[in-house]
Amino acid sequence: MAVPISQMWTIASYVVSQKLRGNKRYPLVMQLEPLFRCNLACAGCGKIQYPAHILKRQLTPEQCWSAAEECGAPVVAIPGGEPLLHPQIKEIIEGLIARKKYVYCCTNALLLKQRLEEGLLKPSKYLSFSVHMDGQEEHHDFAVCREGTFKTALEGIKLAVEMGFRVTTNTTLFDGADPNSVRAFFDEMMALGVEGVMVSPGYAYPKAPDQKTFMREREKTQSFFKMLLSNRKAAWKFNQSPLFLEFLMGKRDYECTPWGLPTYNIFGWQKPCYLLQDGYVDTFKELIETTEWSNYGRASGNTACQQCMVHCGYEPSAVDHTFSSIGGLFATVKAMLASSYVDSTQAAALSEEAKKPHGPLVQLGISAGVRRVDNRQAEMAASGV
């Protein structure tokens, strides 16, 4: 099981209590961004394209704790930027743990080994390191625009697992991803002893330098994930709602619930979600009460929402479905018990996909030209030219 029973019980009890109170819009996971600066400059990132004076700013531990208490979500995810660059990240995390929040420190792990050796934190059931790993070595290093990051992150993961920390990985997949390579990546992560893996299609941040690599067509995204997540191996563990994974595969249709993962950062509470930036407010109450929620999600017709299938908008929808009816609960249990999704058609599609070129050169649009040159050279050689 990818999530400890104590955490599952806490979240289940929390959601049921919200249902009993009649709360339609409740937070499930709070996204806490204590800073935007990072030690990487990934082409698909929309969080670090700020001027230097903004990147120098950071939240205080007191601001982080106050926001978490105000929000009330049982889980706090700490992305960024790179949270391990924050000089008071130890205090921030320990304060959240003291408040019995389940904390996911989302890190690229370039500093993880060093900070653990320095004694940064102690293992706790409330703390997980969620390591950004965008696939196998070649794919990951290309995605984050720096060679050697995969190996460095691997060292951090190994040490964290060895020291008894909870460790998960989070993988953002872009257009042109190789499903066979991603499946091999799942094998590699399970062999390391991580608690579970998380996957999601990327979102086309307007500020991201590379706009070409995002999965923009929902039907294409569903086809990819159906191929990827069918015929699963028993050893694979996902730190996600099984119904959200079915949503990615096109087996379910949900509407976005952006209030499920509210974002708090140096500007305040971000409207309406982690991905869009349509203004900020000072309090969580203002976020819930003043945001025009009907303007967002696929049903709204908002063009920024039409192709999005990212976990921060749809995983809360899947969790809400689980606890909204007997049917939702039954579907979740069924998905957990029958999780292999055997599908001969998708197995055949994987085999065909293995024959196609993949990798960084393809994503850069180079390999097709290379093949044409190679074919022309072969033709010339055959004709004796």
Description:
This protein has 16 helices and nine strands. Helix content is 42%, strand content 12%. It is globular and about 55 Å long. It has helices spanning 5-20, 52-55, 61-71, 89-98, 112-117, 137-143, 149-162, 179-192, 218-229, 242-248, 284-290, 311-322, 326-337, 344-354, 360-363, 367-382, and strands at residues 29-32, 75-78, 102-107, 127-132, 166-173, 196-201, 263-265, 268-272, 277-281. The longest helix is centred in the N-terminal third of the chain and has 16 residues, at 5-20. Helix 3 runs parallel beside helix 4 (89-98), helix 9 packs across helix 10 (242-248) and helix 10 (242-248) packs across helix 12 (311-322).
List the strand order in the largest sheet. Answer: 6-5-4-3-2-1-7-8-9
What is the helix content? 40-55%
CATH architecture tag of the largest domain: Alpha-Beta Horseshoe
Q: Round the mean pLDDT to the nearest integer and report it.
A: 90
Strand content: 5-15%
Poorly predicted regions: 210-215, 368-385
Global geometry: globular
CATH topology of the largest domain: pyruvate-formate lyase- activating enzyme
Count the strands?
9
The value of Rg in angstroms is: 21 Å
Q: Give the CATH superfamily of the largest domain.
A: pyruvate-formate lyase- activating enzyme
CATH class membership of the largest domain: Alpha Beta
Biggest β-sheet strands, sense, barrel: 9 strands, mixed
Overall number of domains: 2
- Tell me the series of helices and strands, N- to C-terminal: HEHHEHEHEHHEHEHHEEEHHHHHH
Helix-and-strand structural type: alpha/beta
The N- and C-terminal alpha carbons lie at a distance of: 62 Å
DSSP summary: helix tally: 16
